[in-house]
Amino acid sequence: MATGTHCMETAITTQPKQAQTPTPSVAVKKQTPVLRTFLFCSAAAMLSGVLLFLCFFPVAWGSYLGWFALAPMLVLVRVRLRPALILLGALLGGLAFFIPALSWMRVADRSMILGWMMLSTYCALYIPAAIFCVRGLERWKLPLIVSLPVAWTALEFFRSFFLTGFPWYFLAHTQHEVLSMIQITDIGGVFLVSFVVAVVNAFLFDCVYQFPEIRRWFDQAELEPYRYYSSLEILNRSTMADCHFRRNLILEAVAVALLVIGTYAYGLKRLGEDRFPPGPVVCLLQSNLDQRMRENAAEPKDAKGAAQTVREHYHELVRVGSWHQQKPDLLIWPETSYPIPWFEISPQFPVEKLTEPEFVVWRDNRIYVQEELKLIARGANNVPNLLGMNSYFLTADGKSQRHNKAVLVGGDGKVIAKHDKIHRLPFGEYIPLKSWLPFLAMLTPYEGDFGIQAGEKFTRFDAGPYRFGVLICFEDTDPFLARRFVQNGDDGGPVDFLVNMSNDGWFDGSSEHEEHLAVSRFRAIECRRAMVRAVNMGVSAVIDGNGRVLKPRELPGPTPTMWAITQDMTGVPTLPASAWHQFKQKAGVILAAVPLDRRSSFYAFTGDWLPIGCWLALLGCASWGFVRRKLALRGLA
């Protein structure tokens, strides 16, 4: 036993003592300078950042790169450097990823360039946070295939809701095209897919790190010696026999293989359940209007200019979509596409308190909008319209609130139901920490006071015998909102499908259009409900409950373009991501039958059990480590 212990200590020693008379067989290791080590590890981290960027649009190689893009950065988990240098290297890797990935933000407005830099820096901070957590978990002798996914998943979850959240560019999103690998989303949400991808990244790093030939190359960068059990080690047979190491990398390989094969098998099973009966026929209006024109249309001084152009543009889309030989059951407009705001007054507000000019404005607007809605209904062949519009609400205490609203208008031009956007976009619809940091207003494309009030109800709309819920703008990237529509709640029962109405005109033809669609696929799988998207500038689409983006066929005729998706939902092919760009920055309509998915979703009813469990593990290890240090200081441990 003593001999085995001595052999083990010898095997893990990286700094052998130099003999007074060295023999030719004994190599004296030359110390590598700290700067060289830091540059090497920073380069590895930045390589990971570049690989992660290549996983997403506009390049979109994530189906392959996503499984190992994170691995080079993991040298920071084992490197022997001061913590500040390790975290700095990780931050550089994060910036190498997020700065180019979020470059589409600068397209919106010059003022957004600073916002782009700040958001990129904020998101990049999660990379050193993950490295810090993983290094901490190494002290608990956890395999890297456990510590990395636990830390990464926990931090992705935190980023998805902190300051209303930014749930973009998750590890899971790299696999949006590999439908067989993302069907587990209905078990643990998008976070479970990120967990699996992180496991594979950790395992591949361990494989490279442990091979003796590669290990010697790593030693040139002064990677930390094997002080803590952090993963499993490959050794030659003689060393293995002598040292009796507790575990072997083969065990990790078996565990990872079972996880990946199980994920793939579950995905194939779910994808085989693809017989979705056709539901209501919807007509998705895709406009192609510059955001500045839309903004001008909302200004009273330009009501006869830009507003008229916007009105005529949408009336033409409505005409093409509603007077087709197959009459739709519902016309869906993009977010805030209706150029005239909606005014409402609280029933508890005493109208007599309004001054004469204010009263005239509110009264005349309501009359004008009511007449306009009747004209839209007649022009739409009496088909109901789901309109996206801005609205102003006068509360009982006389305060004016602005909302981003979806309004369902019946075939007779009367309003049936309304829904207010719940998830507000930071710096686009509100300024976080505005009272404490007023200078943050410089990061927005607006002047003066702006912002909307968050909605509170998950309104269920009716389309004949079917019910649907509305996600406005980036709400379809939020992992929390969509599943509320497939649960029984105070606002109603589960819906039959989801609608996303969005305005991506801010990002005029950039990669944001495709990335937005890629992220929204996960909401359809999480809820096992089809999602239909009507987007200004695109990409409008129909996504079934398996996350497939259904391929529309173009119908012959004059512009604007009309696409259709047949009612035989089983035979509709998938539109590959490489072809998505063909459907953006085009005005047109998509006429489609909604594929109804009647399956249930474990994730929709249980919620974020996985990331919450990851946080409990992190907090538990941190708490127990703190207690142990206190006990050690008192001589009790």
Gyration radius, in Å: 28 Å
Strand elements, count = 14
C-alpha geometry:
globular
Stretches with pLDDT under 50, minimum 5 residues: 1-31, 224-246
The computed structural class is alpha/beta
CATH architecture of the largest domain: 4-Layer Sandwich
Distinct helical segment count? 20
What's the CATH topology name of the largest domain?
Nitrilase/N-carbamoyl-D-aminoacid amidohydrolase
CATH superfamily of the largest domain: Carbon-nitrogen hydrolase
Provide the helix percentage. Answer: 40-55%
Distance between the first and last residues' Cα: 26 Å
- Mean pLDDT, nearest integer? 84
Strand content: 5-15%
Number of domains: 2
> Major sheet, described briefly?
9 strands, mixed
Highest CATH level, the class of the largest domain: Alpha Beta
List the helices and strands and how they pair.
Blueprint: H1 2-11, H2 34-55, H3 62-65, H4 75-78, H5 83-101, H6 112-124, H7 126-138, H8 144-159, H9 179-182, H10 185-188, H11 190-210, H12 212-219, H13 237-243, H14 249-271, E1 278-286, H15 291-297, H16 306-322, E2 330-332, E3 342-345, H17 356-379, E4 385-394, E5 400-409, E6 415-420, E7 461-463, E8 466-472, E9 497-503, H18 512-527, E10 531-536, E11 541-543, E12 553-555, E13 561-565, E14 588-595, H19 602-606, H20 609-633
Parallel strand pairs: 1-2, 2-4, 3-4, 8-9, 9-10, 13-14
Antiparallel strand pairs: 1-14, 4-5, 5-6, 7-8, 10-11, 12-13
What attributes characterize this protein structure?
single chain, alpha/beta, 9-stranded mixed beta sheet, 637 residues, Nitrilase/N-carbamoyl-D-aminoacid amidohydrolase, disordered N terminus
